[in-house]
Amino acid sequence: TEGRLWGGRFAGGPSDAMFALSKSTQFDWRLALHDIAGSRAHAKALHAAGYLTAEQADAMDAGLVELGRRVESGEFVAAPTDEDVHGALERGLKEVVGAELGGRLRAGRSRNDQIATLIRRYLREEIRLLAQDVDGVISALADQAETHLGAVMPGRTHLQSAQPILLSHHLLAHAWPLVRDVERLRDLDRRLAVSPYGSAALAGTSLGLDPELVACELGFQSSVPNSIDGTAARDLVAEAAFVLAQIGVDLSRLSEDVILWCTAEFGFASLDDAWSTGSSIMPQKKNPDVAELARGKAGRLIGNLAGLLATLKGLPLAYNRDLQEDKEPIFDGIDQLHVLIPAVAGMVATLTFHEDRMAEVAPLGFSLATDVADHLVRQKVPFAVAHEVAGETVRYCEQHGKTLSELTADDLPRISEYLDEGVLAVLTVEGSVSSRDGRGGTAPARVKEQVAELRAARSRL
Ligand code: ARG
């Protein structure tokens, strides 16, 4: 039963197909160093409770350190006969400290509390790295926003021209959701800081081991208040999968804008050569593959979350082997984002914006119509009337083949008695943008403030 942690009550070993199904080293090996950290903490608890003498505890700890070194250097790897990371490492420990001492470590713990602890510890480490990655995209967006302060563009709702806005305002609108994603990761980190070690199989340990000692050794804030919950719960893994999916979705929405902006029809931006790809047949092509892969991977991340929730929904308490199915989707999500996010950051940082083109199309689609209405409201005309007059103004322009900014004083009385020459002053893209000067609005002074507010928010993350 080398590499297998059970066998006494079985007359024979598992069939090949049973073993192939059960085996998890091909994906849970990445938890090996966390498992060794857990074992070192557990050995301390065993010593504190009198199950290891000081000499045994020292030898055990030195053995675990040596095993960790062998794992890191690749000298020790899972063997084809190892069922899971836990079995493989016990085999490795026995190789280092001998079977007698090595066989003492497993007292008072179960793979159920072990795996529940390892996945939390692993996720804490990974989401901190992810938070840094996400901050790289936020930083790229903030830098572009700062560089292009003052540049205008058409703002859209329903993808139709709505009102002119600042390009910086739009870029920052992609940064704030990512700030919230990092906050979500920080918040989740606090919930993950509770250690299930000591829950044993489900009912807790009978050996007087101190779960708080283990929790503290492993960098957790405390141990779980309920051993059944400690071994059976995977909501925190699902929550991590949600935040990963949300990050994917936020990057996907940003990417969709980039894809549109880089079309010939929009012409708002161009991709840097280093962050785009060519076509094997069409020589002119420069494709936004980073953005498209972001959009594609968002779907995959949503699938990982949905699959995990489906796995959890019908499980009775406490541990069920179904829970092993949490690993691959969450590992996959982490791996995908580690590859994706730096590429998105690079793509954003190197985008070239075509300010003239954006300024040219900003007033199209009668995007200044709201400014006509707002102007009349400032003259104390009721908004319902102002809306009607602004609508008539658009209709007049349409009939005469003009944009709103091309109207002259002669046109006004032919449209409505309500219109005075003062309206012409607001019928410019710059006038429109500057007039939206409430907090959060697109006026240049406000957007400048917002860049500073974003930098302050980042420093608190
Ligand atoms: N590999 C399992 C998992 O990922 C942990 C081991 C628990 N196995 C068991 N037979 N109790 O959840």
TrEMBL record:
Source species, domain of life: Bacteria
One GO process term, biological-process aspect: L-arginine biosynthetic process via ornithine
A Gene Ontology molecular function term of the record: argininosuccinate lyase activity
Keyword Disulfide bond attached: no
Domain Argininosuccinate lyase C-terminal span(s) in chain numbering: 366-433
Primary localization: cytoplasm
Catalytic activity: 2-(N(omega)-L-arginino)succinate = fumarate + L-arginine
Subcellular location: Cytoplasm
Fumarate lyase N-terminal domain ranges (all copies): 14-303
Keywords, ordered alphabetically: Amino-acid biosynthesis, Arginine biosynthesis, Cytoplasm, Lyase
Cellular component, GO annotation: cytosol
EC numbers, comma separated: 4.3.2.1
Gene3D superfamilies in alphabetical order: Fumarase/aspartase (C-terminal domain) (1.10.40.30), Fumarase/aspartase (Central domain) (1.20.200.10), Fumarase/aspartase (N-terminal domain) (1.10.275.10)
InterPro entries per UniProt: Arg_succ_lyase_C, Argininosuccinate_lyase, Fumarase/histidase_N, Fumarate_lyase_CS, Fumarate_lyase_fam, Fumarate_lyase_N, L-Aspartase-like
Pfam families in the record: ASL_C2 (PF14698), Lyase_1 (PF00206)
Pathway the protein contributes to: Amino-acid biosynthesis; L-arginine biosynthesis; L-arginine from L-ornithine and carbamoyl phosphate: step 3/3
HAMAP family: Arg_succ_lyase
Protein family membership: Belongs to the lyase 1 family. Argininosuccinate lyase subfamily.
NCBIfam families: argH (TIGR00838)
Protein's UniProt name: Argininosuccinate lyase
Species of origin: Tessaracoccus oleiagri
